[in-house]
């Protein structure tokens, strides 16, 4: 009889430990996921702000329509990251130095894109993160807030 009680006691304890384990490991996972989304949201918002201040007068915020400048959706896949950052900071210099893509863009008869030497890597990462996220949202049919 006492043996049975001890056995049941042990089994019960094991079950409790297993439950606690699942509960906490699951809990930890969701906290990490929450933190990741929070950071992503912050980057998105910073990117959106920078985009509105510097780019949206010429590039459409929904990223899929041509305004006075080309649509930027998918640009991080079309272009190499180093090229993108250099171009955003110094498009005019790149055109003058004979960069083939800059020359190609000029030949499509757009107006000239100004240079943004003040945008550091963190700012550009945020801007291009926003560009691609916003483009995905547009493709899913989520309208642009003006
Ligand atoms: C005054 C208008 C204007 C503003 C503001 C502007 N652009 Fe542009 N952008 C252009 C034009 C016009 C082109 C086409 C290339 C050219 O003729 O210089 C272009 C081209 C580009 C390209 C190359 C696209 C491709 O297909 O390779 C990128 C990338 C780009 N712009 C990013 C930006 C970002 C990021 C900002 C804000 C920080 C910005 N632009 C602000 C006018 C603008």
UniProtKB/TrEMBL annotation:
The keyword Cell membrane does not apply. SUPFAM superfamilies: Cytochrome c. One of its GO terms (molecular function) is metal ion binding. Keywords: Heme, Iron, Membrane, Metal-binding, Transmembrane, Transmembrane helix. This is Cytochrome c. The keyword Metal-binding applies. PROSITE patterns: CYTC. InterPro entries: Cyt_c-like_dom (IPR009056), Cyt_c-like_dom_sf (IPR036909). It comes from Flavobacterium stagni.
